[in-house]
Amino acid sequence: MEWETVIGLEIHAQLNTVSKIFSGAPTAYGAEPNRQACPVDLGMPGVLPVLNQGAVERAVMLGLAINAEITPRSVFARKNYFYPDLPKGYQISQFELPIVGLGHLDIELEDGTIKRIGVTRAHLEEDAGKSLHEGFEAMTGIDLNRAGTPLIEIVSEPELRSAKEAVAYMKKLHSLVRYLDICDGNMQEGSFRCDANVSVRPKGQTEFGTRAELKNLNSFRFVERAINFEVERQIDLIEGGGTVVQETRLYDPDRDETRSMRSKEEANDYRYFPDPDLLPLVVDTAFVDRMRERLPELPDAKRARFVEQYGLSDYDAGVLTASREMGDFYEAVAAGCDAPKLAANWVMGEFSAAMNRSEVELADAPVNAEGLAGLLARIQDETISGKIAKEVFEAMWNGEGDADAVIEAKGLKQITDTGAIDAIIDEVMASNPQQLEQYRGGKDKLFGFFVGQVMKATQGKANPAQVNERLKAKLDG
Amino acid sequence: MAQETLSGWVRKLQAREISSRELTQLYLDRIERLDPQLNSFITVTAEQALAQAEAADARLAKGEQTPLLGVPIAQKDIFCTEGVRTSCGSRMLDPFVSPYNATVVERMNAAGAVMLGKTNMDEFAMGSSNETSFYGPVRNPWDTERVPGGSSGGSAAAVGARLVPGATGTDTGGSIRQPAAFCGITGLKPTYGRVSRYGMIAFASSLDQGGPMAATAEDCGQMLNAMAGFDERDSTSVERPAEDFTAALNQDLKGLRIGLPTEFFGEAGLDERVRGVIDAAIEVLKGRGAEVREVGLPNSHLSVPAYYVVAPAECSSNLARFDGVRYGYRCENPEDLMDLYTRSRGEGFGDEVKRRIMVGTYVLSAGYYDAYYLKAQKVRRIIADDFRRAFADVDVLLAPTTPELPFALGAKADPVSMYLSDIYTIAANLAGLPAMSLPAGEIDGLPVGLQLIGNYFDEARLLGVAHQYQQETDWHTRVPAAFA
Amino acid sequence: MSVDTSEVRRIAHLSRLAMNDDQARDFAGGLSDIFAFVEQLDGAAIEGVEPMAHPLDAEQRLRPDAVTEPDRREAYQAIAPAVEGGLYLVPRVIE
Asked: For chain C, what is the total number of helices (H) and then of strands (E)?
């Protein structure tokens, strides 16, 4: 039988506010346990939540970026359950009336076609703390620094049909939140997390199969592998005569498998009801308009502009707009050297290769946009050749100074003085009489030999076009 | 000496006729001598009080005039007090020494009040008789075999016996007004949102409101001046310009339109003698120029059942944080996490609290939400709408505070009969309206309370009507003989 | 409406309240009375009425995004039943 996979993603993005969603405690990652947990985060008696404007602003920006309806009057609700990392015994979330309603996101499939994925809703909520199991005998330690960190949970429609589509959607959303600068996107630190609802059904069937919710998918690779494993598991189960049960399953990257979470086995009854400590959140059109003004150029628009403005291929424009930082970097380089195509080739080529080799992020690269533009300008004005430029770039990457300093220090300036080039050519001709005679006897192929000798004598610095021209004249003369 | 009112002490302190230290010592002595009969205090903070009194005296000497400077008060043990046990009347919080102050405590400290201690209360404010406290029942100073009412029974008994000139209370369904009535004192539940709930341990968040309890309306106004005000830590706190709640005390009652809700007089269960007291009070107000007419609150009979859905629902969630992990009671040697939760909560909470948690859990659970919770929220609106219509025609509503006299300890064993003790007070909480109780008579040596309900933010007018009544009567000056 | 002991045990578990059989029986009586009492709501004229979650018709106020809370871990943990290395301890949680 042929099976169809049905996937819906719930993505939790931590919003990059400096303080928590309902308290004035800091949100910075990596502090000592419980040093960033105030009475509100600790669920102390009598304390009350007050909503952070920064979180609301970011949620609205996200909503606008996915063309979603912004709910004029949304409501915070309590999701009640007991867990040690949930200090109040309930999570403040949004249930019936989320701040962001129906929207959509376009993803590019492998064959280049565009697929529109519906976003059901996105709601604001608070993150939970962390349970630490290592280092204690028969005990678990609870760190509530993360408790109360603002989250936006973005729920997709079950419209993704493969692990690859799921990853494409997740990457697109990841890029978007970073474009919007509402989330740092750091998946290792858990700033951008994904749960996947996965089910299978016989191809052609309209009803959905029973789904499993996969948790702990903290990298793009894990999302893909976990979904693929789960799809196989479900198909094997059904084909073996079994049935899929609705449950939460944890992905174990070490074993590359998903397994049932015992702790979440119990049927949950979350008893949602409107949080009486918080009033309805009213977002009026003036607020929405202010957020709209704050929106940066979004990836799809930027990509189209790069094609239009810089004459780049759609593919190159896509690569260069994959992240806001990369797009900004590219534009700075292009402007600095006034050679957009050369800039695109270099950013995607030498520069990206160097980043990969050194395993650094753009922000930490030893050569900045200004530096790279300076180098490319020297190619443009023929101070150096493209080949020499690679050598200069290497030196710049190693911290030997900017392009001009490296060119100067290493004496790499291109020789463009016709007299000097003529003198070298004369010297080369004089020291290779045999080849000269053969060339003049009709062995044209030896022209390349003479170019090589001249370039060797100048350590590659002679302007290649001039060398060609002068050599031709002298050899033939 | 102890007959003096809170307002009277404010004047004497300002006039330097007595020092705060002397006054504080006077009341501390009374508490030590007399409270064993009442059990109205859970914690007495004598040392701290004397230090606060000395600081107040220094400020008085400099001519400062903050509203409660040097005046001894008590805090209901539901308000968090930094460095002082804040038990909420529960074993669950018996070990809880709060690391922060409630906003009300901060404000009263800033106003110069001297805190003598923390008053007893029904556990987590759930009760109408003060019998559910982990620290034992409070007794009514008018008859120690009877209850003082609840949940602010400790504050009411302490003020009634003049162990303190004023105390804070909280009122979720009548917890200021009903004990005020039972103990012969004046108590005001302000408009929802007037007094910050930050640091006031939540029972039912959309109903809870803190307020003053003292001998007179004037005292309550002075206390409310210190207690009320916008608080950025409470999202439900109302942002309004500061108001002097004593401003209307001397306004006469000519032309004041008083409404008598027929439903609060016709219901079975209203003690005829209580009815007689209220009728007499109406005559006093008429004599001062007020006009009286009947009004209808046709849905008021639904207020107790609606309340016993809404309040438990909120309480079941509010009390989920008491889990034995970060503070408070933790059971011995928990076997596993479930055992830690269920035993800490099972041992830490008393029966009435458990009962309400379970009612609330039930009405919010899958399949019951619409039938109970949502329905109750709708009923809540029609009850509030009844009041809106009534206040289109009248300025103030008048009714008994309670249908009956203070009852004997242990007299109301089944929950529902206890709940009906708040039959006249609950509607104001559902609507969020200000309401107060003031002493209006005595039957067989037991006080009777008169309730006034005002329109939103109309506390000053309520206090004015009460003050005018207290100009004409002396019920508010009476103190039980054993404590005179 | 009447609540039996098994229903009481279910609610008690959802509420994380330890309860023995005797207690469950006692609570069953009280809870049944309360639910029977609350049934008066069934007659209410609430057709088309908006549920009322708050007494005042107000909107949520927003707090500026700023850090205002200092680290007071020692004070907060001084009242904790069990802490080690700054962490609150609970019996081992199995995931």
From this structure: 3, 3
Contact B374/C51, CB-based, under 8 Å?
A: yes
Nearest to A140 among C58, C85, C93 (CB): C93
Q: Tell me the C-alpha to C-alpha distance, in Å, between residue A328 and each of A306, A317, A347, B106.
A: 11, 12, 11, 51
pLDDT of B97 over the 60 cut = yes
Q: What are the structure tokens assigned to B409, written together?
A: 């300890």
- Considering its fold, how many domains does chain B have in total? 1
Interface probe, candidates A124, A131, A140, chain C, greatest C C-beta count within 10 A: A140
Residues in C closer than 8 angstroms to A216, CB to CB, are none
Indicate the pLDDT class of residue A458, thresholds 50, 70 and 90. Answer: confident
pLDDT in tens, A341-375: 999 999 999 999 999 999 998 989 999 999 999 99
Domain C5-43 has CATH 1.10.20: yes
| Strands A51-52 and C62-63, sheet pairing | parallel
Question: Scanning every residue of chain A, which has its alpha carbon at the shortest distance from the alpha carbon of C71?
Answer: A35
**Angle at the Cα of B463 (from B457 to B466), degrees rounded to 5?**
140
A267 plus A146 within the same structural domain: yes
Q: What is the pTM of this model?
A: 0.92
Q: How many domains does chain A have?
A: 3
Kindly state whether residues A200 and A345 are assigned to the same domain.
no
Structural domain including B106 reads: 6-256+435-483
Task: Indicate if A121 and A9 belong to the same structural domain.
Answer: yes
Sign of CA dihedral B253, B254, B259, B265: positive
pLDDT tens for each residue of C16-70: 999 999 999 999 999 999 999 999 999 899 999 999 999 998 999 999 999 999 9
Q: Is residue B16 in some structural domain?
A: yes
DSSP state of B482: G
Buried b (16+ CB within 10 A) or exposed e, B96-111: bbbbbbbbbbbbbbeb
The beta-carbon neighbor of A90 closest among B232, B320, B366 is B320
Q: Whole-angstrom Cα distance, residue A51 to residue B235? A: 8
Q: Which domain holds residue A119?
A: 3-289
A46 vs B contacts (CB less than 8 Å): 78-80, 102, 197-202
- B87 included as an active-site residue: no
User: Hey, are the CB atoms on B326 and A43 less than 8 Å from each other?
Assistant: yes
CATH of residue B248: 3.90.1300.10
Contact assignment for C85 to A135 by CB distance below 8 Å: yes
pLDDT tens per residue across span B1-15: 778 999 999 999 999
Chains touching B, CB cut-off 8 Å, 3+ pairs: A, C
SS (H, E, C) B89-153: CCHHHCCCECCCCCHHHHHHHHCCCEEEEEECCCHHHCCCCCCCCCCCCCCECCECCECCCCCCH
- pLDDT for the residue numbered A265: 47
Least confident segment among A132-141, A154-163, B60-69: A132-141
Measuring CA to CA, how many Å separate B395 from each of B263, B392, C55? 18, 8, 19
Residue finishing a domain among A385, A410, A435: A410
**Interface contact B320-A80, CB threshold 8 A:** yes
A87 and A179 together in one domain: yes
Give, in order, the Cα–Cα distances in Å from A204 to each of A1, A207, A234, C67: 11, 9, 17, 54
The CATH code of the domain that includes A454 is 1.10.10.410
The whole-angstrom separation of Cα A20 and Cα A18 is 7
Q: At what angle do helices A418-431 and A464-476 cross, to 10 degrees?
A: 50
Contact (CB, 8 A) for A27 and A17: yes
In B336-426 the beta strands, taken as DSSP E runs, fall at 396-400
Per the domain annotation, does B208 fall within a domain? yes
The closest alpha carbon to B302, from C46, C41, C52, belongs to: C41
Q: Tell me which residue of A285, A276, A56, A286 sits closest to A182, measured CA to CA.
A: A56
Distance between CA B386 and CA B381 in Å, rounded? 9
Residue that has been written with the tokens 């604001």 in this structure: A124
